[in-house]
Queue: 3 jobs
Job 1
Amino acid sequence: MNISVPRRVTAVAALAALALAGLTGTSASAGPAAAAAAPDIPLANVKQHLTDLQSIATANGGNRAHGRTGYKASIDFVKAKLDAAGYTTTLQTFTSSGATGYNLIADWPGGDPNQVLMAGAHLDSVSSGAGINDNGSGSAAVLETALAVARSGYQPSKHLRFGWWGAEELGLVGSKYYVSQLPTTERAKLSGYLNFDMIGSPNPGYFVYDDDPTIETTFKNYFAGLGVPTEIETEGDGRSDHASFKNVGIPVGGLFTGASRVKTSAQVSKWGGTATAFDRCYHSSCDTTSNINDTALDRNSDAIAHAIWTLSGASTPPTGTVFENTADVSVPDNGAAVTSTVNVSGIAGNAPSALKVDVNIVHTYRGDLVVDLVAPDGSVYSLSNRAGGSADNIVQTFTVNASSEVANGAWKLRVQDKASADTGYINSFKLTFP
């Protein structure tokens, strides 16, 4: 995770107006401008895809594993849907363990071919079961998002590409092959790859990859807008297809709801469920259509669409230099103040008279919070003093006259919870210098 790294802004969206936007770009991954809102992804459609994948497995020995007839039938099923929707599809073959494997690549016509946003999921299961959560869930949600792009006639600034990978369960074989076959010039065109592997676990958590900060913030802001806390994904880090892209320098991000690890008591308090495995049927025969949490699948499917629409939208000229910290900082209930720091450098003279301070705090009762901006010399600027009553979260852009302060140095967002019974954390803190 990049913390306190200056970046040239390609867009500055008003978080006060839209909590789900407010993202900036990096030199490697241009950030979005305010884009059209993503459509709702119908849960019923995603579940129908899962029913179809279950039927394919049932008709082909109970699984959809690499080298088995169930996998090829799964690829053919997804390809037919995309062909009918107007995508340009490519079936890529490779060999693993003596069997032919398949990747499916689908390109949506239009968009800047030099700026490609890609989303993907592995389509294969293990040989012991139908693989409906692992990873029918990610595959179905990505498919339905791609179909939503077609239904809406969406024409983003960036070119959209979707991928379904084979032989992931054998060591990310399909995605590694795809990346290895991309010429260096084509790799450079990928502004980001979004990965979705197990997003409907029956005892779910809400985990976000902490790789590219822009992608990470996009997902965290989305869930913050729902009032759903997130955690950084650690259980499967590097064990899914995003690793193939990350290893060659492509910005990556994604979502995950947990596998065989046991949900902690703190996570039960946060998300509900039980202190058992996130997915008790991980890599087993009971990973069927009954092994899905509808709420998690629905939320994550909508989050995928939100990210696609947000990260692929039209870009705008640079408007400033941004310094941002996206590390989560827990705010103790009725406890001591905590801080999130950004280190500003390379700015001549004093800070501006209209310094933009973007604050994203996830909290169940914002009226408990005292929020200040602390300048490098210790000067304090009040942003919010137990305001907002019973509303939750503070996702807002504040304007501060900081013209008396030297710009360079350690700026802190200081947050204190002054009452009992509600909890939260600093999600991100950003300063924009014109």
Note: The radius of gyration is 22 Å.
Job 2
Amino acid sequence: MIQVNHLTKSYTQPNGEVLQVLKDVNCHISKGEVISIIGPSGTGKSTFLRALNLLDEPTSGEIIVGGENILQKKYPLNKLRQRMGMVFQNFNLFEHLTILENVTLAPIKLLGLSKEDAQKEAMQMLRKVGMAEKADAMPKNLSGGQKQRVAIARCLAMHPDIILFDEPTSALDPTLVGEVLSVIRQLAKEGMTMLIVTHEMKFAYDVSTRIFFMNEGVIYEEGTPQQIFENPQREATRAFTNRIRTLSCYVKNTDFDIYEFFGQMGQFCMHYGIIDKQRTIEHITDEFLTSLLKPEERPVTVSLNYSEKDYSLTLTIKIEGLDESPLARSSSDELAINIVYGMCKSLTEESAPDGYEVKFEL
């Protein structure tokens, strides 16, 4: 249905610097597929969707839709927009029109339907999304979830071959997300081809035939939901799907400001709701740096990793240039060793590239 070859998109910023958002995107999308696009913010997910629909004109590459390269000059945009509908984050309803008028506007203007036929069709689509009783309401009188369902009905009224969803729940109150996702799930069951940019990981797992993980302006890894979420092949994918949040600090020498780092740790713990672990992290870090390592054993990297998926918390201390465990040395402070062992659930030690690493499961 859609073949994308070497797609790029660059922007020239006010200072003249060129920002390349899409670097080399390649993919094939078949009829009936539901593809969720996930990845960190700023990696080109929404830009990719907008480029497919030519809302943002790509810098280079090919987009083949139904055998035609839509990037060739004189390709009719109205034809593309009829085949490829889009649902935005912020609904984009016309506030001065009723819900029914919002849904009938494009079929009348672009498809040439009579008002009567367009209204009949629109009511069918509003029933599909559970919004028929609001046909005469104004957008201002609807909740965010209801507005998004109307936006989906408006898209369906054009009978598109494919629908692009750009973070359809990101602007919604959490209590309203479910009603929109339920509509999208129903469309998936009916065989609608969809590309969905989403941060709802469980939804992506449940509804998708394939997952695109975008990172650094490319489709960094793709596969079935089971492959991407349960057995990712690349480290960046693994970190993202496990929703691992990281705070790292590079300790060059003994003059390092440990109290500033502890302040950053406190903010990190506060943000992710693990403030009860802050004192434990501080104690282990302090004992390790001041009692178990020699002053010359620097630099050291201290990393705190928290997984929002399974709520695991790991403190990792890597010492460059060290080829043995600092805990196994006869000269190590026995009291400090007992303290760090007693404050963690488990501890692992292993050689690492150019050094030695100790991991504390907290």
Note: The CA atoms of residues 5 and 342 lie 55 Å apart.
Job 3
Amino acid sequence: MPADPPPLTPDCGSCAGLCCVALPFAKSADFAASKPAGTPCAHLADDFRCAIHTRLRPSGWTGCTVFDCHGAGQHLTQHTFGGRDWRAHPELRAPMFRAFPVLLHLHELLRYLTEAAGRAPEDLREETEAARARVAALTAYGPEELPGIDVDAERARANPLLTRVSEAVRAALPGPRANHRGAVLLGTRLRGADLRAANLRGARLVGADLRGADLRGADVTGTDLRGADLRGADARGALFLLPSQLKAARTDDATRAGVPRDRGRHAGGPSRD
């Protein structure tokens, strides 16, 4: 078991195109076609790269451009399966495809806990670090053990702690600290809104106008920001903000977020065309 947690930044060049094979797609505004889990996407090339990488959005594959495996793809390929892939070793197809969704969710949870451990107040630091170490240890499980992990139970175990860390951090910040947890705010006009230290966990802000809004210190865990206009918004210090959330939103050079907007390469890496 490695002493250090796995990298949480995607490196598609070290992966076997797992997000393009193991996961299902449903035809929608995010995906141009449907495909079942375990079936390679029609655009996945022989070298595990995306054949339409530079044309994903205009081709109707927006969902691929915002997907983030948090490093689970290369971890599974290079460590769990020792650098082997499902094409060269067809016998690994089923075990790899079973393990990938589990590791994907564990890496996402580990990302949240890693941030929480770095921001938790002193009285919560030891408990938060222990939770982070527990999930990091789970990511080191082997291909036979990973599918047996109850991801929902691990989330249920971690979420109360993540909530406590969020509440403690936001309580120490200035701002109105509005509570919009789980709110449906589709297309809502929030231009210039003061949302400092707000609770936006699970809020649906699809298409919302957040131009120039102040989101500093807001908890945006699971906030749906698809198509939200964040031009000129200030989200520095926002809690649990994922780069994939920013990719799904509309941003500009004046958007301040404190996290990179493009971590790694998505959807199989650069195209070959």
Note: The CA atoms of residues 131 and 182 lie 25 Å apart.
